[in-house]
Design goal:
Blueprint lengths: L1 H18 L8 E4 H18 L3 E4 L6 E4 L1 H17 L6 E9 L3 E7 L7 H6 L8 H5 L8 H11 L3 E7 L3 E9 L3
Helix pairs in contact: 1-6, 2-3, 3-6
Length: about 180
C-alpha cells in the first residue's frame, strides 16, 4: 500500500509539472489493446480477491500517442476503482469503440455502489470521496480520479461519467487516435 501511495504521489507531481508547462508530455506510439490488457492483468490480482471478473470486450485496434506510463496509470486507476467499489461476484467490463473520426472511446463499467448526480459533479475534485466510498472500508485518498482527469486532458482527451446509486458507474475516456 505504501509503494502504491508513493507511485501515486510521483504521478501526481509529474502531472502537476506537465500542467504547469514545466515538463513535456512523452510522445510514444502504442496500441490501445496492449495498454488495456496490461492494466487488466495488474487489476485482476485485486479482482480475484473479491471474485470479480474483469472482462475485456471489443477494443479498437488503434494506436494512441502520448505518455504510455501515464495513460496506463489512468486506465489502471479506473479499473481498480471499479473493483474496489463493486460487491463480490460482479463484473467489470472494459470496452471501446470508434468515435467521430479522430477519437476512440474507452469505457470501464462496473456493477458497484454508484453515485448520485451531485457526487458525479464533484468526483474529479482533488481529495473528494463520496460518502459511500468512505463508508465502504476501502482505502482511498480522493486524489486518483483528479489525476486521471488531468492525464486525459493533457493528452487532448476528455472523461465522462454515468452513474446511478446502486446501479454502478461507467467511466468513458474520449481519446485522440494516433494518425
Amino acid at each position: 500500500e505504501s509503494k502504491r501511495l508513493a507511485k501515486m504521489i510521483e504521478t501526481f507531481l509529474s502531472v502537476e509539472r506537465m500542467s504547469a508547462g514545466q515538463m513535456d508530455l512523452k510522445q510514444e506510439r502504442f496500441p490501445l489493446v496492449d495498454l488495456v490488457e496490461r492494466c487488466a492483468v495488474r487489476a485482476r490480482a485485486l479482482a480475484n480477491n473479491k471474485h470479480i471478473e474483469i472482462k475485456i470486450a471489443e477494443i479498437p485496434s488503434d494506436d494512441l500517442v502520448g505518455d504510455k506510463e501515464l495513460m496506463e496509470y489512468a486506465v489502471y486507476n479506473l479499473l481498480t476503482n471499479a473493483v474496489k467499489y463493486s460487491p463480490a461476484e460482479t463484473r467489470v467490463t472494459v470496452f471501446g469503440k470508434d468515435d467521430r473520426g479522430d477519437r476512440i472511446q474507452l469505457s470501464v463499467q462496473d456493477q458497484g455502489i454508484g453515485m448520485d448526480k451531485k457526487e458525479v459533479g464533484r468526483i474529479f475534485e482533488k481529495f473528494y470521496r463520496t460518502k459511500k466510498a468512505e463508508q465502504s472500508g476501502e482505502m482511498g485518498t480522493g486524489i486518483g480520479l483528479s489525476i486521471v482527469k488531468q492525464i486525459i486532458n493533457e493528452h487532448g482527451g476528455t472523461i465522462q461519467v454515468e452513474s446511478e446509486p446502486g446501479k454502478g458507474s461507467k467511466f468513458t475516456l474520449f481519446l485522440k487516435r494516433a494518425l
